[in-house]
Amino acid sequence: MSESSTKLKKLRWIASTAGGVPSNRLMESVFAAFAAIRANKMRSLLTALGIMIGVMNVVAMVSLISGVNASVMDVFRQMGTNTFTATKMPVSNIDYSQYLEYLRRPDFTYRDAETIEKLCPSVIAVSPQAIVAKKIKHGGESTREIYILGVTPEFQYVSDSGVGDGRFFAWPESDRKKQVVVLGHPIKEHLFPGSDAIGEHVLIGGRRFRVVGVMEPAGEMFGQSLDDYAIVPFKTLNKVFGARLTTRLAMKARSGEEIDVAMEQVERVLRQRRGLRPGEPNNFEIVTQSQLVEMYESLTSVTWIVMIGISAIALVVGGVGIMNIMLVSVTERTREIGIRKAVGARSRDVATQFLVEAAVLSGIGGLFGLLAALGIGAVIERATPLPATLEPWSVVVALGVSIGVGVFFGLFPASKAAKLDPIVALRYE
Question: What is the DSSP letter of 234?
Fold first, then answer.
């Protein structure tokens, strides 16, 4: 056997022990990448840390925001698509001077509600609403200050809410300004634990009211109960606590398709009742559920932008780390690259090997980031009132982006490895 043949066999044996015979088959490149990563465990882990932080941030924030969005949208759905409100304040952000200006607008009256119900055929229910904050007492127990809503019996229909125990107050009680109250479920549980509240009396702001019903529980949002309120007749609230209360009108259209027509009818009636001339701006606002949803989405969009920025920074830092470590790897494995090229590996094979290694390294970082995000989401959901919902698309995107970052930042080291001259590489010590 010639000396050159013996040397060729020896080079092939070295190549096989140095990470696998060059091949354009992807799986062999992946196995070789894992072998290289295992050879430098700590260095590889530290390199993937930036990718892990970026992916963890993306998945955790998407889970948190998605959970919060689901809770808020559930509340909006409960309010109905064919309900709207006339109020003094707009839904858009306003400064303090604008707030004071809007606050001076005239309140809505009981007569406004009656006129709308009479002259607006597309509106099937109207309930004026006034609100005060008072403590409720019974025996030795007392609540903190909670909202006391003054409404008409149509409130049930407008808000799609029901009574769980007892009944809602009737029109005769509302018209005669009777001091009756319907308690929210947690208020009843606090003041009458384990006993029936119907027919009992409570003190609201020092005034005696008879309990006629308890509302069905509506649940919680962000850990806060949606049932911390009590309801009394609108006229009673004005009689007992004063007529100059902030008032709004809650209304329900015949259907979601008729809501625009109903809003136009209400606007026309309110402008006439307030003596507004043609061309003069409204001194009231009509707010729909879709406007509330849009306002909420505009607020959360800021959070999305911040999240994307933070994640992008972490991923770029992680990508730079991968490029740096791959350049070090190219330098350390220069002789190995020379041997592979000497036994027939093409430049494309060498470049593919290093690209796959960068992608695997960043993919491992993305996987660890995903696991960390799942743990953070579980901790947040158990330790705080904030809900967290894992979105499958966020997992796919996060892992895809992490691998893409590895490939992008691995291009330069891979190109450098592919361009090495095999003769020079074999001489490298």
Answer: H
C-alpha 260/C-alpha 294 separation (Å) is: 17
Across 384-408, average pLDDT: 75
* C-alpha separations of 121 from 87, 126, 158, 258 in Å: 21, 12, 15, 10
Q: What is the pTM of this model?
A: 0.61
Average pLDDT over residues 202-212: 93
Q: Read off the DSSP letter of residue 190.
A: H
Contact between 212 and 166 (Cβ < 8 Å): yes
For the chain, give every domain's residue range: 12-72+296-427, 106-283
What is the DSSP secondary structure assignment for residue 107, as one 8-state letter? P
CA–CA separation, 214 vs 185, rounded Å? 6
Cross-strand partners of 208: 203
In sign, the C-alpha dihedral spanning 72, 186, 184, 90 is negative
- C-alpha 380/C-alpha 385 separation (Å) is 8
Exposure of 386 by Cβ count < 10 A (0-12 exposed, 13-18 middle, 19+ buried)?
A: middle
Q: Which residues pair with 220 in a beta bridge?
A: 225
Nearest Cα residue to 233 out of 167, 164, 175, 187: 175
